[in-house]
Fold this sequence. Notes:
The structure is a single chain. By secondary structure, the protein is mainly α. The chain is 68% helix and 0% strand. Helix 4 (62-81) packs across helix 10 (151-158). Residues 92-109 have low confidence and may be disordered.
Amino acid sequence: MDEQPGSQRNTGRFGEMALPHLDSAYNLARWLIRDDHDAQDIVQEAYLRAFRSFAGFRGDNARPWLLAIVRNACFTWMKQHRREELDVPYDDDIHGGDDPAGGGGVDATDTNPEAILARLDDVRLVDEALERLPVGYREVVVLRDIEELSYKEIAVVAALPIGTVMSRLARGRKLLASHLTQLQKGGSHGV
């Protein structure tokens, strides 16, 4: 017997499976949208969508499923409000080329945001550098390096092949390192 979305059992199960991931959902929305208020609204709408379709959820790990719904809600919102952000492809000439360190500051061989953060000791710079990333790269960097999802989970959330996730993550980290170097040197060259 399938239960209706509002049944007490489904409501309790949804709460148990979904509420622990509310912070992750908000973080993803905030990084994609870059506005706290809009991110809160999007997460609320995404959780309502998730609740309505929860009776059809099969599995025991709701996090990738929920984050995929949040991600889709974010991209729908961006199509309506900031379409231009969705049309920014990665271009080595525009986004920094092969040397993210630019000859100084951050080590070009270490593009791990956590290692860079440890050396820079400035969360504000990392936040600003993350905001400069094109949304496609920002989302995989946030999902992997902040939310600590596996490549497979990111592939589910972003509806991408694992190879594309890995490629975007590598390019996103490289671009992040380039932006961090620019910011560390006092540059404000935006994307």
